[in-house]
Structures are given as C-alpha cells and as structure tokens.
Write a structure and sequence with these properties.
This is YncE family protein. The chain has one helix and 28 strands. It is an all-beta fold. The chain has a domain of 126 residues: YVTN repeat-like/Quinoprotein amine dehydrogenase (Methylamine Dehydrogenase, Chain H, 7 Propeller). The strands form seven sheets. It has a four-stranded antiparallel sheet with strand order 3-2-1-28, with no helix packed on it. A hairpin with a 7-residue loop joins strand 14 and strand 15. The longest helix is centred in the last third of the chain and has 7 residues. It is globular.
Length: 335
Amino acid sequence: MIARAGWLALPLLAACAPVSDEPTPAPGGSDVSGALFVAGKFGNTLAKVDLATGEEVLRVDSCANPHELATSPDDQHVALACYGGTTVDIFRTSNLQRVKSIELGENARPHGIVWHENGHLYATAEGRQSVFWIRNPLGEADTFEFSTGKQGSHMIAVSPDAQHAWTTDLGSKTVTRIDLVTRRSPMSATIGEEPEGIALTPDGETLWVSARGSDMAYALEPQSLKRIKDVPVGDFPLRIVLRPQGDYAVTSDLADGGLSVIDTATGAKVRSIAVSSREEAEAKTQVTILFSPDGERIYVAETMANTIAEVDFETGEVLRRLPGEGGGDGIAIIE
C-alpha cells in the first residue's frame, strides 16, 4: 500500500527512475501525427517527440526544474514555466531554439501557464503569490502582476474572453479568482484539501478543480466559486483536464496509477482507466495529463518512469509508452 504522506512532498522528489520503455510507432498503422513536447524537470531539459514514430527527435537544455508547458495559438512556439527560477522561456517548436526569456522577478517560481487564443501568456508565480499577464510575449513583452495573497498558487485557468483567471492555492487550500481587467481585489474560497488541478469548460460556464488531499473533484460556478458538484474520484488526483469537446473531465490519480472520467453534464464519475497498476504507481509517479486536440487520446506523464503513456480515450487501452527522459512532467502537443 502506498503511503500517502510520501506524495505530499511531490515537488521535492529526487531524480531516479527505471529505464523507459522502447519507443514505438503509432499503433495499428494509425494516422497519428504531430509532436509532443516534454519538460524534463529533473534533467532540466525540453524534448520533442514525433508522434508518428514515437521517437524523441530533439532535446535541449532548458532551465532549472522546468514544469508546465503551453503552445502558442499558431503552434509555432512553446512556452516553459521555469519553476526553479524566475522566467518564462519561449522556444520554437520546429527546432527548440530558445527565442525569449521573460523575467518575472525575484523568487517568482512560475508554474502553471496558459497561452491564450488572444496571443497573451498567463502564468502563476508561486513564490510571489501572484499571477502574471504577459502581453505580446514574442515582441516587446509587457508584464502585469496580480496578487493572489495565497500560498502555493500553483495551476491556472483563464476565461475565453480573458477577463478572469483562476488559481489553485495548494498551501491555502483555496481557489482564487483574479479580475484581469478591473483589478478588483481577488476572491478566494476554500475548496477541499490541497486543491491543485484546475480546468475551465470551453464555454467558460463551469470551473473544475481536483483536490489531491480529498480524493475529490469539484465543479464550481466560476464567478461566485460556489460548489455545484462534489465528485469522489481516485486516489490523490493531482491534475484535472477537460476533453476539448467539453463533455468529460478527467483526473490524474497519482497514487493508484489511474484516470477518473467524469461526465460534465451529470457531474458523475462514469468510469476509471488503469494506466498502470496500483503496485506500479509509486515507481511511475503519474502527474500531468493532456488530451490530443481531437479528444481521442490522453497523454499521461509517468515522471519517475521517464515515459509518457498514450491512452485511447474510448477504450481505455494504453496504446504505447513514449520517451519522457529526465523526469518528464509538463507536456504540450501540436498536430
């Protein structure tokens, strides 16, 4: 049985992992194409994996303890939150050349990041208890800082109209709403134990949060932060993502190596997907999850195993394991 106390220090895990599985091409001659980008938080690297062949084709040095990734609306760039430092770094997706490093200030420790359809970047700065709006990130970038006043502002979601952002505040056990336009005081609500994962439905009407200490997912009304649904999920749900179609939310349940699938219309958990066994969960350390743009596959970062599992969403079958060297955690995709 996995000791839950061990997961509470997850950001401090040291780098040691078994050899990754051999890369394999897309199964069954499928037409999977595009690229997966992987931040190696222990190796301080950024890598590019070709989804057609299943092979890593590029790897470069990044920054200290890189975490979340976000691709630009035109898929030409990928932004990296440098959790061990103070910058957001931007790389070309074609060749992983670093083209920009945007300074956020002393002790920033950026983590969650969104590259919005409006072309602007939004990132948490956990060390400063704030959110940054980075306008014109590829040009003469302007940065605007918004305080959350909360401990551990870790992950972020941004509304479709870019009027509001929301953070999960691990240390304060809260979710915080930030008004990006009027700069009114932030609003926070206590949501479970150690809320971490956060995702907003495509229509902006429901905010989903996973609380890893409660083994729960919560549906919230975004403006009032009122709880609409409380959904029991798997063990230690570290992340939550929404299928691009908006019909399902999925949690990454680190301690049992699985995924919980929630019907967003009913607010009920409808099935579980076993990515690895509970006995394997500690060795693999399943963290970040990401849907393919068509919603047909889920990519699951198995950080300590140096692999990224590719899962068929409809059947729950693990199709293959892709390379995620250096402690692959943050992932992003282009097709």
